[in-house]
């Protein structure tokens, strides 16, 4: 089966390095279609150029967040994933859907695991919250509970990178809300998912194959500091 890898992205100094690193992972994966949903009014040339160079099958969607969500604590990547969901509904009947943010780190083994998802599969995500990992708890091969440092009155307290879905199981009712922290849970609930239907992967959720890595924000240095540094290094070199 084809894996549809859905990546929300937005313009910032870290965008090209993040997408480059992710592209180089995806280029090792057979049968993967990269859906890159761009949080801006148009599909940026920077992203298109990068996508073309991968040689991967891809779909590039312009999916700006609605104006009302441009504040500070907005739910990130929602307009993007919604746009990808409608594209999938119109164009794809068969395959696996995975939400892979542009800054995560993925082990190639994860792709082999999720490719056989029947309905919804789940697995641990590393570097999440205070516990350092967010994972389903498995007993006798079944998911019975969740280990996550922020339960937040959720039925499925999991990270966006912690599950994959068989596209046949994507109901017309499937939707993702603009509510920070509840996107994953509400989406899974909207699929009508039941706890005993979850397929635990990664050796009964005992292995971490994906990490919620974060890149430190680049801070533009002031011109003054820059010049000082340049003068100092120049002096040093001329002695
Ligand atoms: C966590 C989860 O892993 C996300 O899947 C979830 O969407 C997010 O929280 C949330 O609840 O808001 P986190 O690492 O905190 O993610 O957030 P980012 O990595 O900054 O953003 C998630 C995705 O949305 C990224 O792929 C990012 O490129 C994209 N994004 C972010 C946009 O498309 N637009 C933005 O303005 C910001
Ligand atoms: Mn992130």
Account of the 3D structure:
The radius of gyration is 20 Å and the shape is globular. It contains seven helices and twelve strands. The chain is an alpha/beta fold. Helix 1 (15-26) runs parallel beside helix 2 (45-54). The longest helix has 16 residues, at 223-238. The chain has a single domain (3-238), classed as Spore Coat Polysaccharide Biosynthesis Protein SpsA, Chain A, CATH 3.90.550. The site of uridine-5'-diphosphate-glucuronic acid has 18 residues, from strand 1. Uridine-5'-diphosphate-glucuronic acid binds at residues 8-10, 39, 75-77, 80, 101-103, 159-160, 180-181, 183, 212, 214.
Indicate the radius of gyration in whole angstroms: 20 Å
CATH topology: Spore Coat Polysaccharide Biosynthesis Protein SpsA, Chain A
Q: Give the count of structural domains.
A: 1
Count of discrete alpha- or pi-helical segments spanning 4 or more residues: 7
Distance between the termini: 64 Å
Given as residue ranges, the uncertain stretches (5+ residues, pLDDT < 50) are none
Count all strands and give the number.
12
Q: What small ligands are held by the chains?
A: uridine-5'-diphosphate-glucuronic acid, manganese (II) ion
Apparent shape = globular
Helix content: 25-40%
- Bin the strand percentage: 15-25%
Please state how the strands of the largest beta sheet are arranged side by side.
Answer: 3-2-1-4-10-6-11
SSE order in H/E notation? Answer: EHEHEHEEHEEEEEHEHEH
CATH architect. name: Alpha-Beta Complex
Q: Oligomer, anyone? A: single chain
Largest sheet: 7 strands, mixed
Q: Structural class, from helix and strand content?
A: alpha/beta
């Amino acid at each position: 089966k084809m894996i549809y890898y859905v990546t929300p992205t937005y313009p910032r100094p870290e965008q090209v390095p993040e997408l480059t690193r992710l592209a180089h992972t995806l280029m090792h994966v057979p049968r993967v279609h990269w859906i890159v949903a761009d949080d801006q009014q148009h599909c940026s040339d920077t992203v298109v150029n990068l996508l073309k160079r991968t040689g991967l099958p891809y779909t590039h969607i312009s999916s700006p967040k609605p104006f009302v969500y441009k504040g500070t604590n907005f739910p990130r990547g929602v307009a993007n994933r919604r746009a990808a969901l409608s594209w999938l509904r119109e164009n794809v009947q068969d395959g696996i859907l995975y939400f892979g943010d542009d800054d995560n780190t993925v082990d190639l083994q994860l792709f082999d695991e999720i490719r056989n998802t029947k309905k919804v599969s789940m697995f641990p995500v590393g570097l999440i919250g205070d516990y350092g990992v967010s994972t389903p708890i498995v007993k006798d091969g079944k998911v019975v509970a969740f280990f996550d440092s922020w339960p937040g009155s959720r039925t499925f307290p999991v990270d966006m990178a912690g599950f994959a879905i068989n596209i046949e199981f994507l109901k017309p009712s499937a939707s993702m809300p603009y509510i920070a922290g509840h996107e994953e849970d509400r989406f899974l609930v909207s699929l009508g998912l039941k706890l005993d239907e979850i397929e635990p992967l990664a050796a009964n959720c005992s292995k971490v194959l994906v990490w919620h890595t974060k890149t430190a924000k680049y801070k533009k240095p002031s011109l003054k500091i820059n010049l000082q540094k340049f003068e100092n290094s120049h002096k040093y070199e001329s002695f």
